[in-house]
Specification:
The structure is a homodimer. With about 1000 residues, chain A is of the alpha+beta class. In chain A, helix 6 runs antiparallel to helix 8 and helix 6 packs across helix 9. In chain A, strands 1-9-10-11-12-19-16-15-14 form a nine-stranded antiparallel sheet.
């Protein structure tokens, strides 16, 4: 891959060598589009239809249908295929030097550059070519799909520096027939062709010097009008205009005797019956072209540059550090912007407008991976993407009926709203898309503040998706929990399972949110509610039943591992043999039968971890850590949707190098063709995901109730990061460096934001500057051996028991008990005496020992506080540093009471509430979380090895007391050496 | 359906009215075949290819392949379709009276009969017809597919009683082109056509006065030779013989002036490259025809009758009682005989040779539903069916490799051995077929005694299927149990589940049996073993690892319900809403999406119950009852494979009317077109199943180690049942009536058999006559209130406790405690005193009471035996009637000891071992089972309502003592009235 890398120009993607083997891949990379119209980067001089250089012109959502043929069909299988059509090519301009055709495969290429100029929103080519017979020319072209004129594309080209030829000829064509689609049968992720010719030519003619073409899809009955206008600008004269069987040609010639430079502008306009009345199409195409001709190519390019300036002003993400990544993220957000539909009638396809992979279908990718970028930059586009879902609600209602459900069941993949997934275990079974859409509505409205959307469209979707969940799931007879069976979660390496964790918790969120929204709107606008509830037949008690189902939602959990189980049966499956799987066997789906994949613990993407991210507030940090640590090693990376999420969660959990590694895979997935399938189109979800990785991962953005919170954690390789966020009408400029974060309100109302958990206000006129360097905010203490030495009391209590019961016991044995629980301690003691006792008896004896111990510690007093601790705590208190106690001992509160320190501790973690003891990080993670600080702003003091391990796993700076704690970040001989000022410094340097 | 019923002729299926709407259905019903060649009952006078009367000629296993097209494909999906070809029609004989064509749709039918003469193995037609123009004729034909000449069919026809015509003309044709296949897309159970023309005509000609036709399949490259010879026998002369584009015609004419009767014999011979070298086919066809012509039609018909006599002598099942059922079972076994391949190269298709449903594929139906009939009647055919599996073992090995497994993975459906199932959740996922094949081998060898088959073929299949299971499953980390995940069991209304009970227990049986066979052969024939183990790379320790997996096989069980769970998740699913499902919504698979079906507790067929039957010896009777009672109500009957098994298990469990109802559905499934799809072909598995229902169900046959056991339980509607069983070379004639069963050894060595659990020997020359009337063999006693009245001791013990603890207690309260457990009793007492206590305290008090009680009963003596009991027990003992104690009291053994009755009881059921107490039948079912008697040969004595209910549920004659037991079959005032002689009589009358 290294060889294929484009130069690290941060504003352009530059191909500086012509390599035929890259044509397909780079046709995807160099696509240009405006959300309505998309053109692959095919070479204009090659003829259309050649598979070697697969051209593609797409109108987002312009599709044909055909019968979906099954080897073995069943009730409810979708009967119709939908394919975004590859439209007849209009980009072709063939060039002849005298009679010698220009073709890169022949002759010599003396200079070559193709560049996607992202700043300008243009695709340019420039090359110096010598023909086999020795003629030469310089060829330049600019291709533009206009953002301000959705229906217009422009190709502006010139020929100069011609030698050896007396005449040049340019033939500009527009094809009229059906284009063959790419079809790689062996890979289910690519599109497939039709048996019939999908696009009929209704009329083709030359009108007013322009090509006019009217076509119609055979089954989906959509009309399309295409107009092409060729304007010779310099040195060229039109020779002919001819309507052929399969194309319309305009031929231009220029004589070298007259002129040295030849220029041609080609305007291409499209209108379809999706957005226009069929009868108006001819007129619309014609006026689009007239306007373009009047304004001229320069004006159109100027508009484009201007539009792009606004785009980058709003959306740019500036990475100070790695140019390849800077290039990658700009490419990605530019591709998103080029691909997203803007009129509520179309969405954003899995491959955007760059190729035919996934047949141009829309998936859950929109809501989960793409909408956040738009919400925080162009909320009007986010709204239109959601509006599209509303536009297909009736089809979703019909689909629910076919599946014997109530409400609406949104299609897993579709263009026109009808389910088009042919493999239901990884299609219709992914019911979670309904909750994902609800989640998209929730995020969009909360971040944008556009609550009107709920009344106009959102609430109806929420009601119908909630109804779906209610009929799909059921309250279990035995425990009353709400269960959802026979579904497939986002991880498609496991299919048709019961209680997929992701599905259930997202459904719970959907149900709860729907209830909140309906209740809220009922109070806020009774008249609206009255009409709405009548129209939808919404019963008075429906929303509260949704809440009940949400509250009682069954969420599988493995108590022993303390990990959320991906579904009811996941933990009982056999582990995948990763060591026995050679690299060439990935992606697994191309090398193993689904049944083999399904029966193992192996993931295409970690959907529990995705839930941890999406519903962040519902999980404790320790839970996220455990889920991440369990599922991450099981994840293959076979899905392009996976590494971005893994990156975000690794960032949040302090695994910074892992986070960076995953980010690298995401941000250049297409430019480096990491999955070796860019030829089929770019990976839109991963592109959105790379933005998420930066904003949610490295910048640590979270949003709740319109309040933004940031927790910067830049990769080591970066010096800085800049971006803007549009939140509820206010534009916030964010600049993060290794030491500080600067938040500047560019426009809009005052904002409340949180930086590393601390709330701030940002107003127009002054920037908020916050440190991103770790800053000591809390110290978490172990008890035994740190605050006091209760080891002596334990010794005395054990001694008393041993004497009474006749066991042997000594100080040597006592040393073995450091950090060990009560029952395990007794077992060690008994082993020394060679005694074996029944469990009940051991419990009894341990209980007696504990009584002795409690009796002893009840006599504790401040005299028992270890030397130096009082002073240290005093220093902390005086600088408002929070103090927590994290001891595994259930007697800790009594000890602290006895020591007279009860008022010193801000919190004492209840040891009984823990699922796992040290060296598990739970107790420390919990302490930091309860105090509300990032672990990196906390320090922990420990005297035992297990405790130090726990602190490290928690990402907390560890202070070790004594030899057993020598693995700590800062090791002290005794508590006497504790020093607040020094600790602050040490922490800052991490 | 009643209207369509054929008359109840016990030897023929007679259609006595021409009804065009029945043509398709009856073309299936009237198919004739010989295991190699099959012909649907199309009308000879209609032209081929018409969908209205779909003709079909099939050679078993003669197939074409084509690409398997998937809407969305994945790795390992079978790439090839296989379809048993409908061969060009050779049966056509068109008739003209003068120039008026004979056609049943025109003119008037004055007489009409079509009859499948099962006794003779022939299909006959006879009709008197008047043409639209008033000409008349009588037409007779006999169609014969010869059993003794596998490659030959004969149509012998005559015309007589002609009026109004001067000349008759018969045109006998043989088609040469491809025949269209039936294709009903909406129903996945029917076959589907090819895009290409599958059968190419290589040569067609007239040689030696016969039609000769050579064809070749395009993809599967099989050759087929067809020869047709027309022999005019009376009144006819050949006019012409012509080779046309699509057929070869022979035209015959007869003049009414010369003759009144006209006769033509048409011989049709087929040979294919499956069984012959391609180069030999022409010669083989020719000699087959020559031999037929030499022998003549009469001889061929005579042979057929003779062959059929031998068939019926061996295989007939005579039902005395219901002619419709008699007709049904004869039709079914005749169809099996007509359809089963006999040469180890072909098997028996799901629709036999009657139609194109399921594309002529072979399924598990063979081993589970069909082989028993052949094993017990024609073991040589059973062997060939298994030999076919051996012939495809290499393909199965390859398939295992594709699925990343070891050993062999047999195809779920196939003709040529390659997996042809296009829907893996109900195809490849049905791994159980491997265990089913092993089971078939086990049953066949055990019943036939043909252990040589193991060495030649069986052992190799056993090794490879065992290897499959070992690699498919795994030993669970936590409990070491062997688990098999992501499979589908026989019940296709649940798919891709973990630990399907049927699959796991059948796999365990496969593994264990394989180990036994290999170990046995290693000892028996070390030389064979040495060569075998080297050839298969069989490691020394492999078989014992199989046994270990079998022993540790995880078998899901719901402890609360005491029912085997169909799989890991079945019991957690939502119950299907049967009451909300109208009849027209069945079969569910045609009206609900698989996801809807999969997520509910609803069955296509009860596979746990099937396991209960197949591995009968592994289950207790009570377990079978519970499994049956749980799954039966969840079973839709949507599978034709289901009711026969339900009938058998209902028979075994004493649900005689249910058993009969299910049988009725099975035995006439095709003749009455119960599933409304006979047009696609008959239901071979259900046909085999109807034989199983009779032999395993009503006759109660089971086999173990070559020993047959019978437990007759004829339906009330029947007076008798007769059949023969061939077991290890001996032929046993079985005659069962309402009162007795007569076992007669017809030939072969002396047999050991069991009748109702009692072992007998049967020798040549004398019949064994056994009663089938219930006969008292054991009496099962409750203890309290029957043997002794310990109620008084309970009273005293409770009283003592109550006084000590200060509860109120009285005789009235004591009455409430009859039949109630200890802890529940205490709760009732506490309630009277208005006292509530923690559980531990209640347990302590109940323990104290029990100590008091045990103290009291330790003082019991024979004086405490209730009046009459000693005498009654004495009577039973003196007549060798077994005696059992079935008391829920854990103190029962002490009480019996105190009473001095320990020696009287043959068994005492350990109350602690029970899963459920009375009124659950468990204790009584267990007692009868342990004694080795049928419940209907036992009586039980009870004084409590719950006890009587338990007896009834157990199918045991109940004797009730006292008013609380008034629901019993025989109610007595006191134990004094117990009378052995009277009890014997009462029992006999049930």
């Amino acid at each position: 891959m290294q060889d294929n890398k484009f130069p690290p120009d941060v504003w352009s993607i530059i191909e500086n060598k012509y390599q035929p083997e890259d044509l397909e891949k780079n046709a995807s990379i160099f696509f240009i589009g405006n959300g309505y119209l998309g053109m692959r980067g095919g070479l204009a001089e090659t003829t259309g239809g050649s598979l070697d250089s697969h051209k593609g012109t797409f109108i987002n959502g312009f599709y044909e249908t055909g019968p979906q043929l099954y080897a073995e069909s069943a009730y409810g299988f979708p009967e119709e295929r939908q394919v975004m059509l590859n439209l007849p090519d209009s980009t072709e301009i063939r060039i002849y030097l005298d009679d010698e055709p220009f073709c890169l495969d022949n002759g010599r290429i003396l200079e070559y550059e193709r560049s996607l100029m992202m700043k300008e929103g243009l695709l340019s080519r420039e090359l110096l070519w010598e023909s086999p017979e020795g003629r030469r020319m310089r060829f330049r072209s600019i291709r533009c799909v206009s953002f301000s004129r959705q229906h217009l594309a422009l190709i502006s080209c010139s020929i100069s520096e011609v030698t050896g030829a007396r005449r040049i000829r340019m033939i500009s064509s527009c094809y009229t027939g059906t284009v063959s689609h790419k079809n790689r049968k062996s890979d289910p992720r690519t599109g497939a062709g039709f048996v019939h010719l999908p696009l009929e030519c209704v009329d083709k003619k030359i009108v007013g010097g322009r090509a006019a073409l009217y076509q119609r899809t055979v089954n989906s009955a959509l009309s399309l009008g295409t107009g092409v206008s060729n304007i010779p600008l310099q040195g060229l004269r039109q020779i002919s205009a001819e309507v052929h069987q399969d194309r319309i040609d305009f031929t231009f010639e220029g004589d070298l005797s007259d002129e040295r430079t030849f220029k041609l502008d080609k305007y291409i306009a499209y209108y379809s019956s999706i957005e226009a009345h069929s009868g108006d199409i001819a007129e619309l195409v014609s006026s689009e072209l007239s306007r373009a001709e009047n304004d001229g190519g320069e004006e159109i390019l100027r508009e484009q540059r201007e539009h792009m300036k606004r785009f980058w002003d709003t959306a740019d993400v500036v990475i100070d550090g790695e140019d390849f990544q800077q290039q990658g993220i700009r490419y990605n957000i530019f591709a998103l912007y080029q691909s997203a539909g803007r009129d509520g009638r179309r969405n954003i396809a899995a491959k955007g407008l760059s190729g035919e992979g996934y047949e141009g279908h829309y998936f859950w990718d929109t809501e989960i991976y793409v909408i956040p970028f738009f919400t925080y930059n162009f909320p009007e586009i986010a709204r239109e993407l959601l509006q599209y879902r509303y536009s297909i609600l009736d089809q979703a209602r019909k689909r629910a009926e076919v599946l014997s459900e109530k409400g609406a069941l949104f299609p897993w993949r579709t263009i026109n709203g009808v389910e088009a997934s042919a493999y239901f275990p990884a299609g219709t079974a992914q019911y979670h898309i309904n909750a994902d859409i609800a989640y998209g509505i929730q995020q969009y409205t909360s971040s944008s503040g556009d609550f009107d959307f709920l009344k106009s469209s959102g609430a109806e979707i929420l009601v119908e998706t909630s109804r779906l969940w209610m009929s799909l799931g059921f309250f279990g007879k035995e425990d009353g929990r709400f269960r959802i069976n026979s579904v497939t979660g986002p991880d498609e390496y496991t299919a048709i399972v019961n209680n997929n964790y992701f599905t259930n918790i997202m459904a719970a969120n959907n149900l709860e949110y729907s209830c909140d929204v309906i209740n809220g709107l009922r109070t806020e606008d009774p008249a609206w509610y009255a009409a709405f509830s009548i129209r939808l037949g919404l019963a008075e008690d429906e929303p509260e039943l949704w809440r009940k189902a949400a509250e009682l939602m069954y969420l599988p959990y493995d108590a022993e591992l303390a990990v959320h189980s991906q579904d009811d049966s996941f933990m009982q499956k056999e582990l995948w043999d990763f060591t026995g799987t050679p690299p060439e066997k990935y992606p697994l789906l191309l090398h193993y039968h689904p049944l083999v994949i399904y029966r193992h613990q192996v993931l295409k993407q970690p959907d529990v971890v995705l839930a941890n991210f999406l519903l962040s507030g519902r999980f404790t940090r320790i839970q996220k850590m455990r889920d991440f640590d369990y599922y991450n090693p099981l994840t293959t990376g076979d899905s392009s949707l996976s590494p971005c999420i893994q990156s975000i969660m690794a960032s949040e959990l302090g695994r910074h190098s892992e986070a960076y590694d995953y980010f690298v895979k995401t941000v250049r997935m297409d430019l480096d063709d990491i999955n070796l399938n860019v030829a089929d189109g770019v990976h839109i979800a991963a592109m959105g995901g790379s933005w998420l990785s930066i904003i949610y991962g490295f910048a640590g953005l979270r949003e709740s109730g319109g309040i933004l919170s940031f927790d910067p954690r830049l990769p080591d390789a970066w010096n800085g990061l800049e971006f803007r966020i549009l939140s509820r009408g206010s534009v916030l400029q964010v600049e993060m460096s290794r030491k500080k974060a600067v938040y500047t309100l560019v426009s809009g109302d005052e904002l409340i934001l949180k930086h590393r958990g601390i709330e701030h206000r940002v107003k127009i006129g002054s920037s908020l500057v916050c440190s991103t360097v770790p800053r000591l905010r809390a110290v978490i203490f172990d008890l035994d051996g740190v605050i006091t030495d209760s080891a002596e009391y334990h010794y005395l209590a054990w001694k008393k028991l041993a004497v009474e019961e006749g066991f042997s016991f000594s100080r040597e044995i006592n040393e073995k008990l450091r950090g060990i629980g009560r029952l395990e301690s007794l077992e060690i003691i008994l082993e020394f005496s060679g005694i074996s006792l029944p469990k009940a008896e051991k419990e009894r004896l341990a209980g007696i020992k504990n009584n002795y111990y409690r009796e002893l510690i009840s006599r504790m007093s401040p005299r028992d506080i270890l030397s130096g601790i009082n002073d240290f705590i005093g220093e902390l208190k005086s600088d408002n540093i929070k103090i927590a106690l994290a001891s595994a001992s259930k007697n800790a509160p009594e000890v602290i009471e006895g020591l007279g320190l009860s008022d010193s501790f801000d919190i004492i973690i209840d040891a009984a509430s823990l699922e796992k003891g040290k060296p598990d990080p739970e107790i420390f993670v919990l302490a930091a979380e309860k105090l509300g600080f990032s672990p990196s702003d906390c320090a922990g003091v420990e005297d035992a090895e297990a405790g130090v391990s726990a602190l490290k796993a928690a990402g907390i700076f560890s202070v070790g007391i004594g030899p057993a704690a020598s693995g700590a970040d800062w090791v002290l001989g005794s508590t006497d050496e504790l020093d607040y000022a020094l600790l602050r410094k040490k922490l800052k340097r991490t």
